[in-house]
Amino acid sequence: MKFKIIFFLLTVTLLSCKNKETNTKKELSIQSKDFEVFLKKFKTLKFPLNIKTSDIQIENLKAFTKNDLKFLDLNNIDPDLDNVYPYGILPDTLEAYKVIYLLPAETHIPVIATYTKEGKKISTEELGVGGCGADCGFTCAAYIKIDRNLKIHSVDSITSHQCDSLGPILNTKRNYTHFKDGTITKKGKITFSKTIEQY
Asked: Record's superkingdom (predicted)?
């Protein structure tokens, strides 16, 4: 009798483990298919990649769905209110996927994210230096370059004036640049230098 009870308990445990394993495999399969669909939304880019943020056009891009956003970890974005767009995927995909997407802003913000071949996120960084926007007496042009060695150079050329109630004060004009450099390893780790200001 004891043997039958032990045999029954072992059978139930084994079946339970098998069901859990099957469910896990199904979940991984669904995740993998979702990731494939996500990747297909990016066009393949060419090196050297040059981006002028003010020239980015979104008219022909299709915004990500809520299902896509889970790969970007954008929990604070509501796809019904703010659109996030795929920009492109870097051509070197041997060890990791490197994709660029656009966050909503006055001028869309390019962000690079890297993933393992299984769809696990490795790294995410904004490509721009930041600071471009509309303000009184303030204009800027942001440029980003990524070469085939996965070196990144990002620069903002800025012109600013002090303002009064009539607008920009002409003799307060300043020209300067902000820039930073970065690299992406073959395995997908992204690192950037500190932003430097130069007059």
From this structure: Bacteria
**Domain-embedded: residue 23:** no
> 80: closest CA among 68, 59, 61, 65?
65
Q: How do residues 1-20 score in pLDDT, each as one tens digit?
A: 555 555 544 454 544 544 44
113 in any annotated domain: yes
Integer angstrom CA distances of residue 12 from 4, 7, 9, 73, 109: 12, 9, 5, 38, 54
Tally Cβ neighbours within 10 Å of residue 76.
6
pTM for the full model?
0.82
pLDDT one-digit tens code per residue, 58-110: 999 999 998 999 999 887 777 778 899 999 999 988 899 999 999 998 889 99
> Which structural domain range is residue 47 located in?
29-198
Number of domains comprising the chain? 1
- Is 20 inside a domain boundary? no
Task: Please choose, from the candidates 110, 175, 108, 104, the residue with its C-alpha nearest in 3D space to the C-alpha of residue 138.
Answer: 175
